[in-house]
């Protein structure tokens, strides 16, 4: 009897990651290639197909491909399109599912990466028995996948869950979409760096972080400095966690999730981001929510979350 597997594709601004995954979340083969190599969308799909075929050749057991799941920026689940993605070369509305199905006679499902992560959490991660939760992805920006009553919230036109662009400070920092004061400009790997440089100018404390230029500073360095007692690094995490905790308390009033799961580069800072976020979340919750909302690391933190989340789309949409 052949084993059912799914192909997961994560399209990032720099790299595309591809893998073959089973229902239990086992990743049998995976690879990546440059998203920016091909300006023509058709040429990109041809390369994607060549990598999928290469992965299939590495499989050493009988299998049946159930479908292809894709996580991508500005993806529209209902239409199978990528629409006006700022960080991809293909502009306008790209008919992704339709064009990929010309190369593979398989179901193709596409959604944005944070929504894919939420489905992955529900199928492979720590939300297996939860009906109401949110996954907050903390990378270059802030993404959010919202599950309520056991269903991912897509919204009227598949663009729900853009919580990274909720305005928290009128006239504040610019987000990647040019919105001033949006949450992701403060809470993300990039936002943490921006906060460090704000604090370096605002505080007089000695800090090892004063020795780095903006482009040379990375999240791991800030975490290491915090571990070593650096006051600027610790203050940056406290400020970031305060802002995130306050906003998660606001988001709780929308769907009252059982838990928030943090995923991505900033989430790997561990206690430095979780402790202040948890403190300010609880502090700002309305009384009838207090003690009822968990803040947890994603169950996919140490797995290839991007590929697994994309593949999870297949299981979520093909199983009865």
Descriptive overview:
The protein folds into 2 domains: 3-121 and 303-318, ATPase, nucleotide binding domain (Nucleotidyltransferase, domain 5), CATH 3.30.420.40; 129-297, ATPase, nucleotide binding domain (Nucleotidyltransferase, domain 5, 2-Layer Sandwich). Helix 3 (113-123) crosses helix 8 and helix 5 (219-227) packs across helix 6 (231-255). The strands form 3 sheets. It has a 5-stranded mixed β-sheet with strand order 3-2-1-4-8, with helices on both faces. Strands 11-10-9-12-13 form a 5-stranded mixed β-sheet, sandwiched between helices. It has a 3-stranded antiparallel β-sheet with strand order 5-6-7. Helix content is 34%, strand content 22%. It has helices spanning 41-57, 96-101, 113-123, 189-202, 219-227, 231-255, 271-284, 305-318; strands at 3-11, 15-22, 27-34, 63-71, 75-76, 81-83, 93-94, 108-111, 133-138, 142-148, 151-152, 259-263, 294-297. The protein is built from 8 helices and 13 strands. The mean pLDDT is 94. With 320 residues, it is of the alpha/beta class.
């Amino acid at each position: 009897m052949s084993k059912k597997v799914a192909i997961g594709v994560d399209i990032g601004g720099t790299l595309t990651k591809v893998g073959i995954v089973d229902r239990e979340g086992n990743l049998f083969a995976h690879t990546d290639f440059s998203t920016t190599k091909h300006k023509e969308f058709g040429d990109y799909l041809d390369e994607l197909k060549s990598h999928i075929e290469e992965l299939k050749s590495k499989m050493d057991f009988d299998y049946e491909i159930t479908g292809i799941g894709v996580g991508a920026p500005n993806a529209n689940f209902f239409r199978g399109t990528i629409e006006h993605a700022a960080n991809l070369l293909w502009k306008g509305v790209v008919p992704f599912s339709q064009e990929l199905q010309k190369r593979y006679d398989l179901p193709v499902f596409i959604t944005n990466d944070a929504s894919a992560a939420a489905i992955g959490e529900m199928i492979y991660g720590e939300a297996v028995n939860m009906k109401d939760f949110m996954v907050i992805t903390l990378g270059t920006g802030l993404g959010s996948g919202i599950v309520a009553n056991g269903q991912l919230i897509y919204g009227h036109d598949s663009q729900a869950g853009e919580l990274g662009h909720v305005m928290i400070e009128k006239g504040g920092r610019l987000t990647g979409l040019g919105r001033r004061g949006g949450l992701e400009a403060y809470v993300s790997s990039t936002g943490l760096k921006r906060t460090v440089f704000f604090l370096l100018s605002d505080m007089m404390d000695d800090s090892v972080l004063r020795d780095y230029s903006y482009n040379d500073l990375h999240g791991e360095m800030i975490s290491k400095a915090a571990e070593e007692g650096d006051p600027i690094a610790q203050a940056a995490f406290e400020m970031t966690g305060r802002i995130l905790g306050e906003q998660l308390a606001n988001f709780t009033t929308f769907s009252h999730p059982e838990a928030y799961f943090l995923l991505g580069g900033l989430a790997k800072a561990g206690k430095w981001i979780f402790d202040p976020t948890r403190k300010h979340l609880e502090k700002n919750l309305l009384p009838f929510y207090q003690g009822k909302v968990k803040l947890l690391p994603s169950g996919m933190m140490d797995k290839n979350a991007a590929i697994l989340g994309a593949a999870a789309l297949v299981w979520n949409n093909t199983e009865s």
